[in-house]
Amino acid sequence: MENTATATVKTTVAKPAKKAAAPTAKKAEVKKEPKAKKTKAAPAPVVEPKEIPAPVDPSGEQPEVNLTTAQTPNETPVLKRPISLVIPYLHSAAKGDELLYALRAWEKNFNEDFEIVIIGDKPDFLKDEVLHITRLVLAKNPQLDVAAKLMQAIASFLISEDFILTNDDIYPVNPISLDDLKELRVSGFLGETKLKAGSEYVAKINLTKEILIAAGLTDYDFATHLPVVYNKAKLAEVIEKFKADTNGLLISSLYFNSDLDKDAEPIVTRGGSKDDHVVYVYRENPRLEVIAHGFEHRKFVNHNNAGYLPTLPFLEKAFPDKSKFER
Fold first, then answer.
1. Which range marks the domain in which residue 280 is found?
2. Is 52 helix (H, G, I), strand (E, B) or coil?
3. Is 269 contained in some domain?
């Protein structure tokens, strides 16, 4: 959360005017002057106070005023916009009610002021007030697809300057804050954990790694299937610098490695038994006790298409109530 500036309003108390000196017993000689015409006395000048007195606190201390809501002279009140939670959504790619349960999970567990922005298809269950960008840019290559969606987010005035990018199959299952989302989490180093992936993806991993090392940057793999916080200006700069929107590089790794101190040590997150942050459900027959433990003790649950049905009963139990985003 951004720090809210505060200021103390000083109280100005006017000093009482000195009383006129009492007349002495001895009469002073008074010279007779010509009588002047009687005129009405001019009204005393009105002195406008320079500062507005603050309410008196019984403790004797002056209260603080929140400048995000209070107006000072010649200053407009600061209005803070909620952060955008951006979810690209293609209905034909969904296995079921992922988006519905994701929104319920965010409303219940995200302790920040936020607004939902759906890019793509808008299901009928969503209220009209939910922000919606109609056209979802798609590309056959997965990395170019991500780049196209991010460029779409950067260009939209509906999305705040700092925004959260997440997916419909990522659920916060316990209370989280914006600081939790800003924690730098990696799956390891590029090329270390995804060598069994398809050859085209491996080629993109290796190319991204080479470019980062050539630029003197770290080469962590930031693809963790968790929500991330982007800044529009920085994101546009990174995409343009590395031409990521045309050559299919891994944007999250380019973005966060570009702004990372070489001595920094991000948190390695792989969803294993010792991980306290996320559980990944990527099989049709996972161990149900592992999912149950994740809902009770971890902050996120993420599944792929195969893991949707095993996860669904836990979602139904954890989030049975409608969110404010639903009709």
1. 83-172+180-318
2. coil
3. yes
What is the rounded CA–CA span in Å between residue 286 and residue 321? Answer: 26
* CB 172, CB 299: distance < 8 Å: yes
Q: Average pLDDT for consecutive 10-residue bins of the chain (327 residues)?
A: 38 43 45 48 45 40 37 59 95 95 98 94 94 84 87 95 97 97 95 70 92 96 96 97 92 95 89 90 95 97 97 98 97
The confidence score (pLDDT) of residue 195 equals 61
Residue with tokens 């936020």: 114
Let me know if residue 147 belongs to a domain.
yes
* Total domains present in the chain: 1
The Cα–Cα gap between 164 and 180 comes to: 12
- 249 token code pair: 């590089």
Strand, coil or helix: 211: helix
Alpha-carbon gap, residue 141 to 145, rounded angstroms: 6
The token duo for 21 is 């000196």
In a domain, 91, yes or no: yes
pTM, two decimals, is 0.75
CA distance 257 to 79: 32
Rounded to the nearest integer, the mean pLDDT of the chain is 81
| Radius of gyration of the chain from its Cα atoms, rounded to whole angstroms | 32
Residue 148, H or E segment:
helix 142-155
Whole-angstrom distance, CA of residue 268 vs CA of residue 186: 5
The Cα 319–Cα 317 span in angstroms is: 6
Domain annotation covers residue 23? no
CATH number at residue 278: 3.90.550
Crossing angle for the helix pair 288-297 and 308-318, nearest 10 degrees? 40
Distance from C-alpha of 292 to C-alpha of 314, rounded to nearest angstrom: 7
Lookup: tokens for 80: 């803070």
pLDDT single digits (tens) 184-235 = 999 999 988 656 656 788 889 999 999 999 999 999 999 999 999 999 999 9
User: 139 phi and psi, to 5 degrees?
Assistant: -140, 150
